[in-house]
Specification:
Structural class: alpha+beta
Order of helices and strands: HHEHEHEHE
Helix content: 40-55%
Number of strands: 4
Number of helices: 5
Strand content: 5-15%
Shape: elongated
Largest sheet: 4 strands, mixed
Length: about 160
């Protein structure tokens, strides 16, 4: 009796439990290949995207209470623009910063003018505006916290951050 029950269980096990349907995980519900695998159809894979690391874009410095670009700042921005031309998928945030002197409102406005000065120069060099954005941090994110001119000069900058 127990042998016949076990034989029946084995038969039922093979009849209902043995054949799961295979699912093609390389296609999405819309039928696009690569869905859920980190691959875009016709695009780069996640490994390729990780391999393209944005170069370190350099800060540009400003004189006290100024937002015009020095020849050194223009050269730095030209170098960054050349790199951006060869990497058209990279977007950049141009951050304006100030030293701690001045009111918060004044430093926000000056940081904005510094960011826009760098932004406009990059536009003049051929970088499309939809790849750039600006933000002013005023004195809120200092690079240096000492209360002396050598430190303040480091904080008077525009920082380009690749996104």
């Amino acid at each position: 009796m127990s042998f016949s029950i076990m034989a029946m269980a084995v038969v039922l096990l093979f009849a209902f439990g043995g054949c799961a349907k295979k699912v093609d995980t390389t296609k999405s519900a819309a039928g696009e290949e690569g869905a859920g695998t980190g691959m875009k159809q016709g695009g780069m894979g996640s490994e390729e995207i990780e391999a393209i690391q944005p170069k370190e874009l350099k800060d540009i410095s400003f004189d006290f209470d100024r937002f015009d670009l020095s020849p050194e700042a223009r050269a730095t921005l030209a170098d960054d623009a050349a790199w951006l031309e060869s990497n058209p998928n990279v977007k950049v945030a141009v951050e304006g910063h100030c030293d701690e002197r001045g009111t918060n409102e004044y430093n926000i406005a000056l940081g904005d003018r510094r960011a826009k000065s760098a932004y406009n120069y990059l536009i003049n060099l051929g970088i499309k505006a939809d790849r750039l954005s600006t933000i002013s941090y005023g004195e809120e994110k200092p690079q240096c916290t000492e209360h002396e001119e050598s430190c303040w000069s480091k904080n008077r900058r525009a920082h380009l951050s690749a996104k």
